[in-house]
From TrEMBL:
It comes from Pararge aegeria (speckled wood butterfly). It comes from the Eukaryota. This is DNA polymerase accessory subunit.
Length: 215
């Protein structure tokens, strides 16, 4: 029974680890002795949703030597559709004023994408072309490290590029500009905090692996 209780806590923790609202989940009270089902429930404002059912069954029997034996079996049941609905409802509940779903980083389809700050370089197609090549080079390095990344076509203005990435649930956006070609520095935008940090191109593939848990 102790293991059963520990497993309930572990499963609740797992659900909390893939959503943006850790306090969303609760466990209902167990009823029965020989056989019991416990539900993990997502408490949305629109109503409660059972996301997983954990069951335990106890059996007493006799072996060939007429000795009593006790055995228990533990089962977990969940559905893919229910899990997807739970993640989407969580994202809608935490939608930002920019009107995009705020998915947990682990559920983001792409971890990293790119944007080009092309202000002042429109007249110089060569610089713009080199920036695109640099983005493509970084993209291939990330892909080699099995970091899910998105390489856009860079046809939109900077703010719309960033907005597109946010709408796709991208966790980090690498913003390259003309200065990146001279000093190797670019800004990395975190979609959760909307804060930027400076990162050097030479260190980015290693740093990205740390950010995305690929170390």
């Amino acid at each position: 029974m102790q293991y059963f209780i520990q497993w309930q806590r572990y499963r609740k923790y797992w659900w909390s680890s893939i959503t943006t609202t850790p306090s969303l989940f609760s466990i209902n009270m167990m009823q029965g002795v020989e056989s019991a089902d416990v539900n993990i429930i997502a408490n949305f404002s629109c109503g409660a949703q059972i996301v997983e059912t954990i069951g335990i069954n106890s059996n007493d029997s006799e072996n060939n030597n007429n000795n009593a034996t006790h055995s228990s079996s533990l089962t977990c049941a969940m559905g893919l559709e229910t899990a997807l609905l739970t993640l989407l409802l969580d994202g809608i509940t935490n939608a930002t004023k920019e009107e995009y779903l705020k998915l947990h980083n682990k559920m983001a389809p792409y971890k990293i994408s790119f944007a080009l700050d092309s202000i002042g370089v429109h007249e110089d197609e060569k610089i713009l072309s080199i920036l695109k090549e640099l983005a493509q080079l970084i993209f291939h390095k990330l892909s080699k490290n099995e970091i899910s990344s998105w390489l856009p076509n860079f046809t939109l203005p900077l703010q719309l590029q960033i907005k597109e990435n946010l709408q796709m649930g991208v966790t980090y956006t690498a913003i390259l500009n003309e200065n990146t070609l001279s000093n190797g520095i670019f800004h990395l935008l975190n979609s959760n905090t909307m804060l930027k940090e400076q990162v050097h191109v030479a260190d980015f593939d290693t740093y990205a692996a740390l950010l995305c848990g690929k170390d």
